[in-house]
Amino acid sequence: MNNREVVVLSVGGVRFVTWASTLQQFPESRLARMLNNDDQEFKLVNGEFFVDRDGTLFSYIMDFLRTLQVSLPTDFSDYQRLRREAEFYGLHPLADLLSQEHLLKPRMEILEVRFSFQEMQAFFRIFGSCSTTVETLAEKITVFTGQQSGQSWNSPFPSQKPLVPLPLERPSHHDVIFQCGTDYSAGDQFVARYVSIKPDNRKLINGTNVLGLLLDTLLKDGFRLISTRTVSSEEKVECYSFERMRRPACLAV
């Protein structure tokens, strides 16, 4: 059969249309031999190849033949059945990849935000199980500082004096620390720290406002709030825990 010819398969009653070349990706497979009428399991009926197997699982096999990658839904759980189907079709490279089930299953990504008040300042510490997520989040957060006259916690952003961006503290690849608010300096001078979180362009000094924007940013990024708790009532430390399902990288032949 010419590799550009269209082939129609009916797998358990589910119809698939593809190129012959797609089914010939692995010449030793039963699907490749089927095209030469070399496998009695496949019946040619009215121009369509019929095989009495699971049509839903065959859609994943077709996706593998087209992309040479294994990419499964987040809630997929039939690894053993799909591996059995791959073995039936003689697609041993796919069966080998499916045997690495632990690499294909989505992992839970955990992120924790700790928030505390001390006088006129608010302190934040973000810890995440995925260093890439923490790095991306750190790139969105900017802290600005400057000395202001007569500033207080709720004073509006001063436009008359320039602010200087400060680097965030990064104790490790998995956490980031920053703070906002005002700290008494000398006379009527205050050191003020403002926080901006992209794509929001505001510079916020109130810790509660910064916390609200940070939590909203995480929710929009696909995280789900799973718990809140007070870590230390004396030091007013609150902890917000989030989780997100994270897909593994596709395994490819």
TrEMBL record:
Residues 5-106 form the BTB domain. Pfam families: BTB_2. Keywords: Ion channel, Ion transport, Transport. One of its GO terms (biological process) is protein homooligomerization. GO terms for cellular component: endoplasmic reticulum. The keyword RNA-binding does not apply. PANTHER family: POTASSIUM CHANNEL REGULATORY PROTEIN, POTASSIUM CHANNEL TETRAMERIZATION DOMAIN-CONTAINING. This is Potassium channel regulatory protein.
